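Deliverable D4.2, example record:
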Amino acid sequence: MSLDVSQLESNGFVFARGVHETDLIDIVRHLGNVRVDPRSPIAVRDIRPQPLSSAKANTLSSRYGTDAFPFHTDTAHWDRPARYLALFCVDPGEGARATLLQDSRAWQLQDGEIELACRALWKTGHVRPRLCMLAERSADGIAIRYDKDCMRPMTKEARELEALVEQRINRSEMTRVPWEPECLLVIDNRRMVHARGASKRPDANRVLKRILIGGE
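Output generated by the structure prediction step:
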């Protein structure tokens, strides 16, 4: 099968059912090079709810355990974050835990706010800290990176921007993606923020596959 790239471009994400795990790399490869996180250098990585006691340091699980995760983009600590994030469901788990999506375009940033997002300085990265901006201009408007757990505002402007973005996230509509086996979700990681929803009961058996694509 192939992805509906036009839907990915128009909506910021595409969701497909009936995908075979063995086809994952072939399906996403045309979007760009598959990239790996140096902390876990595996092209197709299993992710599952982790209690605080067993989570890797400097991960969302090490901060939130098996609770919900806040809205963020993946790899915000990289020099060039991944362009796309692919999530494939092996087992949705017993807790009916959804993935939540929000389009940064729904924040309706005005010209002055966009200028601020492209100018205000943040620090990102734990092992190799460096400066970055929340947004940069692109052919489609702005490309964002946002993860308040690995990014810290460094100036008064950046702190004001963080408050503004959190306000817009809380007020903007979101899309809820319920999982079932053999579903594939591909997200434009420089346009959309995503979050892990709450679970109705312990769901250690929830397993998603994660692939990071493009953006070099």
